[in-house]
Design goal:
alpha/beta; Rossmann fold; 6-stranded parallel sheet; 15 helices; elongated; metal ion binding; NAD+ binding
């Protein structure tokens, strides 16, 4: 009997937001309100609490912040759930149990990885870096798996709530493998697919993330490096086994010896009982590790404000963090195009005359408002002489040092 599929939450449009304060409906007004939100002295219990840095801000970001980098999102105006009504992500239990499902997943990921890998952080990510250098932003919690935050500001504590696509992990031995090495192995095992990908890149078919342009070229693009090619022979796709398990098959939890079998070219065979590699992300239906949840809660508890950016908070793992901030009495700011799950809760009982110090709700692109915010804060004296924004860390597709530190 097949396991019933979980419902994907909030795939339709959410109610339009109420802009707070009212004059934040222009770029100038929005920057002024956000500047006030981030710099106003805190009052009340938070200031007197044991919060590590009550005057600092923790950022909670989502896919919307990476749209300006050319990546697709889920629930934006051109998001996958809006324009591709038949799309659903692969489920964790489905990936583990079904060899054919893994073939389909890795074939689509093979096609999508090139664009995802060459994409780079945008002005919003580097503005967050500057806000950190100014001593305003203390840490970042991101739902994104593109690694852009850790590339743009490697020295700022960054927690990747849902993991990252830059590596794979074995579900048996839990060793990691860099995605670049895995991509090379996929190309070697699937020469016809590799040839098709090379032709698609040469023709420019993968240059646009615009869903209408992709559909015109016979492709459907989805977030997180997923490209669907309707009618493609996914069953022919092959993927490698975990090299660690292949070299030394581990003992299973029940004490039995596992086996890892590959064909003559090194592709994983369905007669194996171990050695399945999965992306180092939290798949739909998979639980977030308890140590990651705890680290996220500590990041909320260690700051005095929460700034939510580029996310509708549709996933409970993110919404619960905003609710935790609200329950602690933290001022909350939301910068997102479109509605946010249960956002009215976060702005209850705000003083009618407040200008942003108690909360802000803005509806503008992050890559437009955040650079202007940085300039505004410079003008009022928040620039540190030693601060130096640099884009030289873009090649650093490595595991986040700070992420590991937070979980150690």
């Amino acid at each position: 009997m097949n396991k019933p599929l979980m419902r994907i939450p909030y795939t339709g449009p959410l109610p339009a937001p109420t802009i707070i304060p009212r004059n934040a409906n222009t770029l100038h007004g929005a920057i002024a309100a956000l500047s006030t939100f981030l710099t106003a002295p805190l009052s009340g219990a938070l200031e007197r609490s044991s919060t590590a840095d009550p005057q600092s801000t923790v950022v909670l970001s989502g896919a919307g912040i990476s749209v300006a980098s050319g990546l697709a999102d889920y629930r934006g105006s051109n998001g996958t759930y809006r324009v591709n009504k038949t799309y659903r992500p692969i489920y964790y239990h489905e990936f583990l149990a079904n060899h054919e499902a893994r073939k389909r997943y890795w074939a689509r990921s093979f096609l999508g990885w090139t664009n995802l890998h060459k994409a780079r952080p945008n002005a919003a990510h580097y503005a967050v870096k500057k806000l950190g250098e100014m001593g305003i932003v203390r840490s970042v919690i991101t739902q994104n798996v593109d690694s852009f935050h850790s590339i743009a500001h490697p020295e700022m504590p960054t927690l990747e709530l849902h993991g990252y696509l830059r590596a794979l992990t074995c579900v048996t031995c839990h060793n990691d493998l860099p995605r670049e090495a895995f991509q090379d192995a996929l190309a070697r095992l699937n020469p016809a697919w590799a040839e098709f990908l090379a032709e698609a890149i040469a023709s420019g078919a993968l240059d646009s993330e615009d869903p209408n342009e992709r559909r015109a070229k016979g492709m459907k693009t989805n977030p997180d490096g997923d490209v669907d090619l309707p009618g493609a022979p996914y069953s022919t796709f092959r993927y490698p086994a975990c090299p660690h398990c292949l070299a030394t098959p581990p003992i299973a939890a029940d004490g039995t010896q596992t086996k890892v079998e590959v064909d003559g070219e090194g592709a994983w065979k369905s007669t194996s009982t171990a050695g399945i590699l999965k992306p180092a992300v939290v798949m739909f239906g998979e639980s977030i590790a308890s140590k990651v949840k705890e680290a996220a809660e500590n990041a909320i508890d260690g700051s005095g404000r929460l700034l939510v950016m580029g996310t509708s908070l549709a996933t409970y793992s993110a919404w619960r963090l905003a609710r935790r901030a609200k329950d602690r009495g933290m001022p909350i700011g939301i910068l997102n195009l479109g509605g946010v799950r249960g956002e009215e809760l976060f702005f209850q009982n705000l003083p009618p005359a407040q200008t942003g110090e108690h909360g802000v709700r803005l509806e503008m692109p992050t890559d437009k408002i955040l650079p202007g915010l940085v300039e505004q804060l410079r003008r009022i004296g928040f620039e540190k002489p030693s601060a130096n924004i640099s884009h030289t860390n873009e090649e650093a597709h490595t595991n986040s040092r700070v992420f590991k530190d937070m979980l150690s």
